[in-house]
Design a protein that fits this description.
The protein has 221 residues and is of the alpha/beta class. Helices cover 38% and strands 24% of the residues. It has a single domain, classed as 3-Layer(aba) Sandwich (Rossmann fold), CATH 3.40.50.300. The structure holds adenosine-5'-triphosphate and magnesium ion. Magnesium ion binds next to helix 1.
């Protein structure tokens, strides 16, 4: 069983999109895939349960019949920084709870677990802890999604350095291209030389997830 943590240069960079396309490619290659979204903020109440859109999208691609609370056990209604959302509702986010919840996903014994982060790499969860501390404890392999837009070279290198300085293995990066970027090819080439890791995919702007799924070089994993 291998577990990958999907992080990105920022919030809204395409973590869920990339995760869903990657899961589709992995399932098409006959893998059993489970998903985990440790924390979400921005949820709707459905039958008394807070349900997050990312968790729903991930569950549509995964093939382990997981419940919503198995996929995303820590969920807050307001779309704000999760530990601030926790404070506002007299709760706190516990690092050990995030680890325990992940064990419930590991118990499904999938071939591959895909874990989607929240925000960027250094997401505070309160009490001086970060979501990256969970990734360290669980020793997950990290995949970095770069949202190809002006400023992404700086964000990509800073994020990569942070992951490496945390002693983790950042195994690959994805160039996600949802918007038109002048000199896109030059920027992708620049990142190829700045990031000493393989490129897992270049994803164009498309709402067709089959097209996105077909872009992955799964031999990198
Ligand atoms: N390559 C792409 N082509 C088309 N749409 C895309 C692409 N990448 C991302 N999007 C869209 O951009 C929006 C933001 O992407 P996404 O939700 O995956 O970001 P995220 O990093 O998961 O955000 P969050 O931090 O909220 O979890 C979504 O509506 C998504 O469908
Ligand atoms: Mg997301």
């Amino acid at each position: 069983m291998t577990s990958y943590f999907i992080t990105a240069t920022d919030t809204d960079a395409g973590k869920t999109y990339v995760a869903c396309a990657l899961i589709r490619a992995l399932v098409q290659s006959s893998n059993k895939v489970a998903v985990y979204k440790p924390i979400s903020a921005g949820c709707e109440l459905e039958d008394g349960v807070l349900v997050n859109e990312d968790a729903k999208l991930l569950s549509l691609e995964a093939n382990c019949q997981q419940t919503t609370s198995n996929i995303n056990p820590i969920a807050f209604a307001e779309p704000i920084a999760p530990h601030i959302a926790a404070n506002k509702t007299q709760q706190y986010i516990s690092l050990s709870q995030i680890g325990e919840n992940f064990k419930q996903v590991q118990n499904l014994k999938a071939d591959i677990n895909i874990v989607e982060g929240a925000g960027g790499w250094r997401l505070p969860i309160g009490n001086g802890d970060y979501l990256s501390d969970f990734v360290k404890q669980a020793k997950l392999k990290v995949i970095l999604v770069v949202n190809m837009k002006l400023g992404c070279l700086n964000h990509a290198v800073l994020t990569y350095e942070s992951i490496i300085n945390d002693g983790l293995n950042c195994i690959a990066w994805v160039a996600n291209c949802p918007a038109q970027m002048p000199y896109l090819a030059d920027n992708i080439n620049e990142l190829k030389s700045l990031l000493p890791i393989p490129q897992l995919a270049i994803l164009p702007n498309t709402s067709d997830l089959d097209i996105a799924a077909s872009q992955f070089n799964l031999s990198v994993l």
